[in-house]
């Protein structure tokens, strides 16, 4: 069964220069191992390939059951000079939550 | 225990939550964080025109509301609303207090402006290129740390007004002052900086920028309460808000804010301490009450970050809407027409379809055609006149473009670009000026 990350987790987007920062926080802390397993840096880079031009690094925060994705070269130059409608990339939290993962039976 | 409230999280933030915090929050300190990266460069331009200006445009409005309340409730106010001119801001605040018959002492913290000290050949962190290769430099401000505010706190000032200070440091300073934490106590400084980071965006931890109806519901958002923290001598804290205000504080809101804008959770750099957020622990201890424990740190960096504002030309934009049958194709035809007419005049012309693919720069969803689409064209130019061409071309679609275009709007704004560089701490000379 395929589910959207939106069904399992929430996210806030932040920016620093041309870097996009996306948290991924499961509604249920017990889903943290599943998200850690399924939502790798590579998968996020692939899903956001039209947005993120540079590397994606994933940080794990098991204490608060959260993941952080730091995406380089993702904001068309950054908030101050970008021509994008949303130069901060603030709406991109929901671009990550649009990603789908495959759930195995029994989960 | 020391109680510190966050009464503004950005320059344009709501006014009354700070007043509610002062009246009903039993605060020791109120912090107003109002200074975005670009704001200081814009303020610097104002200061050139008028030496008594260059502070935050909402300073008078906020002080009008807050000065009588902070005197009545004995709350000390800390704010970076000084922007490019903290001394002028302090003078204005002192004058306002005199007009109201209030006796207060205002301290301006200066020294963040390092325009005269930087070498234009210094390299930008972002690109490795010299900073003056970007355009005319308008401002250069070092991110001061909490230590810069300590003399002002020791002076007994009721209001402390600064220019550029790292946001968490505005909150950390009163903790250091209140408890006498040594400046090399990385453990407690880290915990305090974490609390500062959690508070710096004000409503973003009380349910603002969080709500998603049916998924993450937040009560009373029209009267969102702003947060305060009760900080203990060991740096642990409880984040809460005034009873009866709107919003919600729960582990979910705290997690979103903890990770907000952090590029490396293992090493979140502030001028005071380098913080490891991965050791933070959260516990919901009551309704709208979350306890923050853990958090650790390493010694502060030798260099201070300097934010540099430069003139980056002008952006012109034009928008027009199409709705009903075949709206998308008509909007696309309109985009093609404008592109053909302007492509030789602009290096980079951005054509967006609002309602389809503009915010995420691509179409990630599923589903059919949108009922209405808004064409947006944007481009950058060296002059204002050139930038205006874009809006003019979009507007001319009224009589020259596809059928049914409406609601055309045109905009031009000056681009203030921001880059950063690093300078040694010793080059920054912090002083305070008192006004009464």
TrEMBL record, chain A:
Q: Could you tell me which residue ranges the AtuA-like ferredoxin-fold domain spans? A: 3-102
Which Pfam families does this entry report, sorted A to Z?
AtuA_ferredoxin (PF23544)
Q: Which organism is it from?
A: Geobacillus zalihae
Stored InterPro entries: AtuA-like_ferredoxin_dom (IPR056362)
What is the recorded name of this protein? Answer: AtuA-like ferredoxin-fold domain-containing protein
UniProtKB/TrEMBL annotation, chain B:
Q: Pfam family example for this protein?
A: AtuA
Q: Where is the Acyclic terpene utilisation N-terminal domain?
A: 2-433
This protein's superkingdom? Answer: Bacteria
- What InterPro entries does this protein's entry cite? AtuA_N (IPR010839)
Name the record gives this protein:
DUF1446 domain-containing protein
